[in-house]
Amino acid sequence: MFAECLQIDGTLLQPGFDMVAVRRSIDLIEERLKKRSESREERVGGQVLRWNYRSEIVQGLQLDRPHRNIWISFALIIMFGFAAFVKVKGDVIESRRAEMAERERLRKELHLTGEHRKTVAIVPT
Question: What is the pTM of this model?
């Protein structure tokens, strides 16, 4: 199934290792971290002060949500701009190709060769 041993979170486990015990210990570690983050308090002058890290408050109250929305809007604006650029560039190339084909048609119709070929142009009206 696996090679000779299994690696979980950087620690190597031997083949006969009990995965249920490993999962249970990982769950206990996660629970201990959760309890530690919930009960941050200090006693100062007989008064209990409860505190959290800034990142925990930001994550808990979802204060970073507007910033995420800003980045999403930037991405949408960039994609819209790129799509518009591709569309306009394609239209310009197609119009130039059509003008070139029209000039070639006129040159062939008038049987122009050499220096006289350069004198034909389509004048927009």
Answer: 0.46
